[in-house]
Amino acid sequence: MAENHPIRSRGLALAVLCAASLMVVLDSSIVAVALPAIQADLGFTPAGLAWVVTAYLVAFGGLLLISGRLGDLLGRRRVFLGGLSLFTLASLVAGLASDAGVLVAARFAQGVGGALASAVVLGMIVTMYPEPRARAKAIGVYSFTQAAGASIGLIAGGALTQALSWHWTFYINLPIGVVALVPAVRVVAPDRGTGLRAGLDVLGAVLVTAAVMLGVYAISSSAWGALAAASVLLAAFVVRQAKARTPLLPLRLFRVRAVAGANVVMVLMVAGMLGFQFVTALYLQQVLGLDALRTGVAFLPVPVVIAVASLGFADKLATRFGPRTVLLSGLGLVIVGLLLLTQVGDGYFTGVLPPLLLMGLGAGAAIPALMGLAMSDVPAGDAGVASGLINTTQQVGAAIGTAVLASVAASRTAGLSGVDHREALAAGFRLAYGVSAGFLVTAVALGGLVLARRQRPNVALVASDAPKATLGRLEPECQAR
To answer: Which part of the chain is the Major facilitator superfamily (MFS) profile domain (predicted)?
Structure first.
């Protein structure tokens, strides 16, 4: 595939893929600031309001893995364009919604479209960029959209809701979707999937989709019965994958050391970093007294620093020192920032901003390195499902982190009944920062043990038109690792 992409066209294709990915990531956070306005306008109950977020997360997280596999079978470009079209159309319906049920249904449809579009993006990028240095740079651009998107969403959500209305948190997707979709048809080169005749494990797809959907719902809603059911379904899925002739998620991928280690680290890293973002948004509003717009602006330094790191020098560091070293060093900076936040006081510029800058720097270096590791040594025919897998572990980590940290902060605050309420809230948030640091420390420990010290040059993700004999010689080496 790489030979069919001149440098300029390849750069335009990368811009289109990242723009679409950014739109999907933005949507997971942009609505959060608008929830009070949505509740007042559409008459949601407090319990029902949670479904504006949960409906999206359940569909998105549950369908990422099968979306990635569909990309391998039907062609990643086709799945990407279909998902982007559905997401854009569902955004229009959500913006026009005048009924709570319509909005929740539209959010579910957004999740489906988002899963289809985003699950295949990383697989498309690594096949477009077979050269190690160019791939590292491209993954850095993609990682910026993933890492900074949530912070940008908070800013945009506050500004749009305050200046216009909550409807515009959905309408904003329309111009982005059209601007991404039209050039995508021209600049994203068609690819040929292996075809549905190669086999789609329907039973496996049902099991894993139900397991992830139930798991995300259970973690978001503290429904422990649903979590137990999700665990049973996940175990059944693993058994099915071991026996299926054409598995949805080939278990051989987990014999690739970098893939297995990177996905475990991703769950822990996202649990700490996305959970931290949720806690900090509450801290800024409930302790420091900032409104929705100023809370969003307070996060602005984070995407700026992430951009400087991921777009400026992360690829050079990974090429010079190896992705493992860059990953562990970047996570170390994030840990230091979180530990500083455990002592945070009342000032934003003196107490909150310095740790945010440190964490942005660490995340900007660590996330591209981890994304590269997750896709290293993956056979070309499995790039879509590997891309869907790393996106799925991101969603699981986000759900776990948000649920755990929210519970920790609330329990700590409730236990300080004799203390000033504002101070009790601050104490709960400081404890949550400590738990976030614990997630990251565990990620560093496991990453140091599991990830190989030096990664050999990637030889499996070659152009799609490479001689089959060459691929046949390479795959046993990848599986042996």
So the answer is: 13-460
Closest CA relative to residue 361, chosen from 338, 335, 334, 322: 334
Give first-to-last CA distance, the chain, whole Å: 25
Per-residue pLDDT, 213: 76
What is the Cα–Cα distance from 394 to 405, expressed in whole angstroms?
Answer: 16
Crossing angle of helices 132-163 and 301-312, in 10° steps, is: 160
- Residue 345's CB is within 10 A of a number of other CB atoms, namely 11
247 conformational bin, left if phi > 0, alpha if psi -120 to 50, beta if neither: beta
Tokens of 192: 């040929």
CB distance 61 to 216 below 8 Å: yes
**Can you count the helices (H) and strands (E) in the chain?**
20, 0
* Token pair 């959970």 in the structure block, residue: 275
Q: Are 228 and 278 in the same domain?
A: no
Q: Which residues contact 386 (CB under 8 A, 6 or more apart)?
A: 68, 122, 123, 253, 259, 374, 375, 378
Task: Note the pTM of the prediction, 2 decimals.
Answer: 0.72
Say which CATH number the domain at 95 has: 1.20.1250.20
Nearest Cα neighbor of 299 from 253, 251, 352 is 352
Tell me the C-alpha to C-alpha distance, in Å, between residue 401 and each of 57, 242, 296, 390, 438.
14, 30, 20, 16, 11
Q: Of 247, 281, 313, which residue sits at a domain end? A: 247
Residues 180 and 238 in one domain: no
% of the chain exceeding 70 in pLDDT:
86
Token pair of 89 as six digits: 């159309």
Residue 89 confidence (pLDDT): 95
Both 318 and 181 in one domain: the answer is yes
Question: If you average pLDDT over residues 126-150, what whole number do you get?
Answer: 77
| Residue 129 and residue 183 in one domain | yes
* Per-residue model confidence as pLDDT tens digits over 145-156: 776 676 677 677
- 């893939």: which residue's tokens? 259
Q: Are residues 377 and 391 in the same domain?
A: yes
pLDDT (tens digit per residue) in 3-43: 445 555 787 888 888 888 888 877 777 777 677 778 888 88
Looking at 247, 266, 283, the residue that finishes a domain is 247
Identify whether residues 235 and 312 lie together within a single domain.
no
| 222 shares its domain with 275 | no
User: How many structural domains comprise the chain?
Assistant: 2
Tokens for 454, please give them.
């030096």
Structural domain containing residue 455: 2-200+248-480
H helix intervals, 342-460: 353-375, 383-414, 421-450
DSSP E strands in 131-213: the ranges are none
pLDDT above 90 for 333: yes
